[in-house]
Amino acid sequence: MRFIAKRLKLPVLAKKKRKDNTGSEGEKRAADFLKKQGYKILQKNYNCRTGEIDIIAKEGGTFVFVEVKTRREGGKELPEAALTQKKRHRLCKAAQHFMRKYKLEEPLFRFDLIGIEFNNDDEWKIHHWENVVDYQKGLVRRY
Question: What dihedral do alpha carbons 16, 19, 20, 25 form, nearest 10°?
């Protein structure tokens, strides 16, 4: 694969880069949406060896771990359908890592999903679902 890409003088990760730009734009819009709803954004793109959390926010006294899924309108899959069991597991493990790292003992927390669809006219639709992952079930590896 690398040889073909080099022969055609195409960047090897060109397709992934475009997806990353779409994802980054979706995450930015999701963070702006949450701010307008009164959430305080604590961190974006929290990474650890067990997974990644797109946005960590706080609503009142509750920590909110947010997964953002961005898709083109009319695509094969709705954004919310992309939250697989494997992704739920990694999200829970990353949240567990975050809470241990910052020594948060028994905090109130939940997992939200923001699904974003966009079209060629640069119109963006944002859907927000609260409390979409059961933490105890999410920690169990079932995939």
Answer: 170
CATH of the domain at 77: 3.40.1350.10
Report yes or no on 67 lying in a domain.
yes
Residue with tokens 């990644």: 52
Q: Which residue has the higher pLDDT, 140 or 114?
A: 114
Where in the sequence is the domain holding 33, given as residue range(s)?
19-139
Cβ–Cβ under 8 Å, residues 53 and 67: yes
Is position 8 within any domain? no
CA dihedral 69, 74, 76, 81 (to 10 degrees): 40
Instruction: Please write the tens of the pLDDT for every residue from 37-54.
Output: 999 999 999 999 999 999
- Phi and psi torsions of 122, nearest 5°: 60, 35
